[in-house]
Amino acid sequence: MEQIRRTTLMDSVTEELRNAILNGEIGLGERVNESTFTTKLNISRTTFREAMRQLEQAGLLVRDPFRGTFVREFSESEIKDLNNLRGALEIYAAEIIIENGGNNPEKLLPLYEIVSQMEGIDPEEDVAQTNALHITFHRTLLNMAGNKLMFTVWNDLAQQFWVAMRLSQLSLVARGEGVNFAEAHREVVDAIAAGDTAQIHKIMHKHVS
To answer: In sequence order, which residues have a C-beta less than 8 Å from that of residue 60 and are 6 or more positions away?
Structure first.
């Protein structure tokens, strides 16, 4: 039971730190302040450092033995590569869903329900909720394909995908090209429901470009 409690605490701390990165509370290239988090979460430095190690392994943090641990900075080419890879995996997932007959409205209901939750949310005002729903939508899509190997590949890079998506979203907003958050995801589900693989390719390309 003690091991379970430690694992649960570790998961919670890791999620808290990950969300702080995704929500922009800790900027790219910024040093992670251990004291701030250990005080805020009332945890030991040992627990927090283990959480940092997990996010370092996931590619979100980089550690300098002399200067501390920093949020990883992503180059434009890295963001492009991550977005393109995610798009390819999710196109394949959508195609598998269609091939397996999983594109009827009843089976796609979980995705439509997530889209419904997205409606009414302002991505610029409610960053945390936007990120949470974004992650849930794409994770659900990959899960529905039922390809364990593909999901493992996707999941191993998921946290880097989230950063790339967030940075791309901010770039669009800065250029005045923001998109309707809910509608953009509804288009994906509608294309899957219609079995329109050409439209899926078109939509996904637009989403990751």
So the answer is: 18, 21, 71, 72, 159, 160, 163
